[in-house]
Amino acid sequence: MATPADNLPIREAQDRFVAVWGQMAGAWGISRTMAEIHALLYITGEELCTDDIMDRLQISRGNASMSLRSLLDWGIVLRAHKRGDRKEYFAAEQDVWTMFRAIVRERIKREVDPLLASLHEIKDISAAAGRGGGGDPAALKAHTKRLDDMLAFFETLETLGHRFVSPAGRGLRVAATLLATMAPRQSRRASSGVVVEPAEPVIDLETGALDGVDGGRS
Amino acid sequence: MATPADNLPIREAQDRFVAVWGQMAGAWGISRTMAEIHALLYITGEELCTDDIMDRLQISRGNASMSLRSLLDWGIVLRAHKRGDRKEYFAAEQDVWTMFRAIVRERIKREVDPLLASLHEIKDISAAAGRGGGGDPAALKAHTKRLDDMLAFFETLETLGHRFVSPAGRGLRVAATLLATMAPRQSRRASSGVVVEPAEPVIDLETGALDGVDGGRS
DNA sequence: CAATAGTTTCAATCATTTCTGAAAGTCGAG
DNA sequence: CTCGACTTTCAGAAATGATTGAAACTATTG
């Protein structure tokens, strides 16, 4: 696989890709090394062993080992073995949408779920405040509404995420592509009365109305 | 506004909310203080001045000032003034969806756009590699595909984000709610209302099958 | 325009996260 | 069981990022 004197420009492109991915790391709340290792595995498309990675990225064995383990936990890097070789090799998931599904799945699990749990707890505390009497009922009501709004948002987010992640959720990939691809509808009558719209896309982006979702398999 | 002897349980709920939000901060790539200030402003629903915030959150003036400025930049906290008071007050955007639209808008601008720019640059480098001859053409082709897949994903993401953020994008809010709300198995037709013959693509949410559009490859 | 009230900046400090490297652990083969 | 090849762990070291506090700045007021 690895050409002895490799194609230098491609290698440069790979290095740039790794660097760019590494930059993103901060914003996504993972360590730079983790992102770089993942980038390297993705962009080379090869199965690499720990030493390959250490060499190319100039990092310590410990760092490589731990980051790799995290990547495995996230499910975006997979173990691979080569016959007659005792070393472990690693490869990145090559399908971009599968990869992001894995990321969404993990982030829901690690961030949204605990957050929802906490918000519910807080709601309970607040309800107790109500029963305890004492406070201004209007203030309590407003407080509760704020909590509920937030809760509703994250519940929608979670459901949406689950849809995206679920095996059947392939659909959402297509839905996403579609929503992104479809020509945006110029808004004409924003809020003026009933809407009777021409035969166009399934989801009316303006009103959110859903027309004739007709599981049409062809 | 501030009741002299405030309702203690509500205050506890607020503190918990602030703490939870602060925890999330790491995952979202912003500082804890920033998240806490935002949480405080959101959950109290009040207009607070720098000193209020310093007191309640036990942070320094400098920290408060800088964090507040960032929140203003993100557009999720707004300046407010009280008549006859020289101080500046701050208030969090109270509509949750508006707030997240602002966040999405900023993240696209700060993360996705630069990423896309870099990816395009990298593509150019790679193309140069092709013209320079030398390398294995098959390898180059595979490399280019990997780049293109990634690019396509983020371009979809960006378009989707813009839709969500745009004024007309209110629709996406509804679409999101809908997608999240709709029972996964029953995608027969919109419960009621106008039924229009879809002349255009139709998504089968169940299988992901798409009529009239190329659903994409793996 | 001087005094005052409020806000911003920034070098220094502090806290947290990430990384290293060597030691301990695992596992298969002989 | 012992050796050797490989992997994981973990206590510091190093790097990075957040926070402070006091000085500089800006705007308002009498």
Distance between the termini of chain A: 42 Å
Q: Which oligomerization state do the chains in this entry correspond to?
A: homodimer
Q: Strand count, sense and closure of the main sheet of chain A?
A: 3 strands, antiparallel
| Range of strand content of chain A | 5-15%
Strand tally of chain A, please?
A: 3
Give the uncertain stretches of chain A in residue-range form. Answer: 1-5, 185-218
Give the fraction of residues assigned to helices of chain A: 55-70%
> What's the order of the H and E elements of chain A?
HHEHHEEHHH
**So how many helices of chain A?**
7
Overall spatial form of chain A: elongated
Tags for this entry?
homodimer; 218 residues; mainly alpha; three-stranded antiparallel beta sheet; 61% helix; disordered N terminus; disordered C terminus; DNA-binding
What does this structure look like?
- The structure is a homodimer of 218-residue chains.
- In chain A, 61% of the residues lie in helices and 6% in strands.
- Chain A contains seven helices and three strands.
- Chain A has a three-stranded antiparallel β-sheet.
- Residues 1-5 and 185-218 of chain A have low confidence and may be disordered.
- Chains A and B meet through helix 1, helix 5, helix 6 and helix 7 of A and helix 1, helix 5, helix 6, helix 7 and strand 4 of B.
- Chain B binds a DNA duplex (30 and 30 nucleotides) through residues 31-33, 49-51, 59-63, 65-66, 69, 86-88.
